[in-house]
Design goal:
The complex is a heterodimer of chains A (about 60) and B (about 525). Chain A is mainly α and about 60 residues long. Chain A contains 3 helices and no strands. Chain B has an 8-stranded mixed sheet with strand order 6-5-14-15-16-13-17-20. The chains are: A mainly alpha (about 60), B alpha+beta (about 525).
């Protein structure tokens, strides 16, 4: 993924999220996440990403 | 008067100085009594430094300005991005310098004062009326000593975001305005920090806010910070509301030298443009033509590019060396550039001042993820200004022959290169800014037909391999080998118009004449 492509995809995601609305934001993002996840070769590619985000969230909660 | 320029800000003064370099007289009408106050536009790009160089203002600019090449962004107190702009030891100018806008105005003004009386600035003078017919434009002005009417062949409105000329013509900017507001503060404080762009998202000093810091000459910090949506802008700029936030942030980053505030203003991002920059004999440039968000520093820099684009076209038409239709290409090219700048500026704004919950939420995600995952860090990059390609311009000539890269394809700014001349080394960009230049990539004596291009108003710059000792020119202009031959036609504003392999100037001249150029 080039920087430009990431940028385009990010903006498109934000626009779509805004049009779906805040109330369904969690559902929307979960669906996008699942759809992206399913396109990886194996769980070995995905599990470390989940663990990383989980650790980051835990660290933030611990810091508050 | 050949050209009347409404507005003596950086764009108007630079345009006057550029026109003078082309031998064209102009008068600048400025409502204020002198240069602006406050730092205003502070980042001058490499491209802008080149344009100011053509105007004769680069030496004091470089001597005064603070050069920088990169920056860093923090989320809370963790660094989440470090970026570098393209920079090399052989460069003529730094990718960016920080300098207060009033210096740019002063140096452009001083440059035009050296231009044999070709340019004149009327301070404390207002444009109050404008009528145009097929022959000329009559501009009514109000001088300190009374009213007068100036008959001008062409009028260029460089009179800023609240352009009087725009109003007199009944024209309106179109586009969007963003809600998020930033307070802008200049403070004087000594520091030992390097010059770089600094950004903090949600800093402990001011939770929830976004803060930008830039060093400027004279021990001045420029600090921009976002205020909450529910804050009253009139209250937000009061010192009692500004100073505590600044104090808190300076304490957080360990800047403890004494300081004092110098200038406070407020800003919200706008993406606005006129639909056309030419209305008969009246042209629009800079903020009078378009307003772009502050993030990415495309405001002044795109205005200077407007001046660079318009100066040679006006000069060519006034001198009878090009048809009037050349002036239409000013609007098509610079309108295209404004739309690109607006698109980039909008993206930067969506990150720096998120317009809705979706952009806010995704920014929260990006900043947190960037701590450990470098793949998302580019999203934080401020997308600094770069010259825009004039894609699809009628001035571009289809390129001929084999070229190994697109860096110098027609419509792009001509790449820089350090060359060896008989009187020492020089940069290619020093040869632009006045006339058409044909870069000749050959070896040995030039064919007579090539040397005769000078008789058609095209300067010939021979670049044999020994002059291109670093190989920068051949590499950046896309020659497949050191021995390969080619001709590149560069416009007076430093953009590539066409390129041809071999050394036959026939097709080049044909392309030149097809567009009506007849010096």
């Amino acid at each position: 993924m080039t920087d430009d492509d990431l940028d385009r995809s990010y903006s498109a995601l934000c626009e779509a999220l805004a049009s779906v609305g805040e109330q369904r934001a969690q559902l929307f993002l979960s669906m996008v996440c699942l759809s992206l996840m399913a396109r990886y070769e194996s769980a070995a590619d995905v599990l470390p990403l989940i663990a990383n985000v989980q650790a980051q969230c835990a660290a933030e909660v611990a810091g508050e | 008067m050949p050209v009347l320029i409404a507005g003596g800000g950086p764009v108007g003064l630079t345009l006057a100085a550029l026109l003078a370099r082309h031998g064209i007289a102009s008068v600048v009408i400025e409502a204020d009594p002198g240069y602006c106050t406050g730092s205003r536009a502070i980042c001058v790009s490499r491209r802008s430094q080149e344009i100011l160089g053509w105007a004769g203002a680069d030496k004091p600019l470089v001597a005064t300005g603070l050069p920088w090449t990169g920056g860093r962004s923090y989320w809370r107190d963790t660094e989440v991005l470090r970026f570098e702009m393209p920079s090399e030891a052989t460069q003529r100018f730094a990718p960016m310098i920080n300098i207060q806008q009033f210096y740019v105005e002063q140096f452009a003004h001083e440059a035009l004062l050296h231009a044999d009386g070709l340019a004149q600035v009327c301070w404390s003078t207002r444009v109050t009326g404008l009528r145009q017919n097929g022959e000329s434009a009559d501009v009514e002005v109000e001088l300190p000593q009374g009213r007068a009417t100036v008959q001008a062949d062409h009028v260029v409105a460089c009179d800023g975001g609240r352009s009087t000329v725009r109003e007199l013509l009944g024209l309106q900017l179109e586009g969007t305005q963003y809600e998020g507001r930033y307070v802008i503060v200049d403070i004087v404080q000594k520091t030992r920090r390097p010059v770089e762009r600094l950004a903090w998202f949600d800093p402990p000093s001011n939770p929830g806010s976004t803060i930008l810091m830039h060093r400027q000459p004279g021990d001045v910090w420029r600090i921009d910070y976002q205020i909450r949506d529910d804050e009253d802008p009139a209250q937000a700029v009061k010192p009692e509301n500004v100073l505590p936030r600044v104090r808190s942030h300076l304490a957080m980053i360990g800047e403890d030298a004494p300081w004092a505030a110098q200038w406070i203003s407020i800003y919200n991002a706008k993406c606005l443009t006129l639909a056309d920059y030419r209305h008969g004999r009246v042209f629009f440039a800079g903020d009078a033509a378009h307003l772009v968000p502050i993030f990415g520093v495309r405001g002044l820099n795109s205005g200077l590019d407007d001046a660079g684009n318009l100066a040679w076209k006006l000069a060519s038409v006034i001198d009878g060396e090009a048809p009037d239709a050349l002036l239409d290409t000013y609007s098509t090219e610079r309108l295209h550039a404004a739309r690109e700048n607006i698109a980039y500026g909008a993206k930067s704004t969506e990150f720096m001042a998120p317009p809705n919950f979706a952009f806010k939420l995704m920014r929260e995600a990006t900043l947190r993820l960037a701590v450990s995952d470098e793949t998302v860090r580019s999203l934080i990059n401020p997308r600094q200004t770069a010259p825009i390609e004039y894609e699809g311009s009628p001035l571009n000539e289809t390129q001929h022959g084999e070229w190994v890269n697109a860096l110098a394809q027609p419509g792009l700014p001509a790449p820089e290169a350090l060359l060896e001349g008989t009187r020492g080394s020089f940069h290619l960009s020093q040869c632009f800014g006045k006339e058409f230049v044909c870069l000749v990539f050959g070896d040995g004596a030039l064919p007579q037909a090539v040397t005769e291009l000078a008789g058609h108003g095209i300067a010939v710059l021979d670049i044999p391999p020994q002059a291109d000792s670093l190989g920068q020119a051949r590499e950046r202009y896309g020659l497949p080998a050191a021995q390969a031959y080619g001709l590149v036609l560069v416009r007076p504003d430093g953009y590539v118009m066409g390129r041809w392999r071999g050394l036959d100037p026939g097709p080049l001249l044909a392309a030149f004449k097809k567009r009506g150029f007849a010096p």
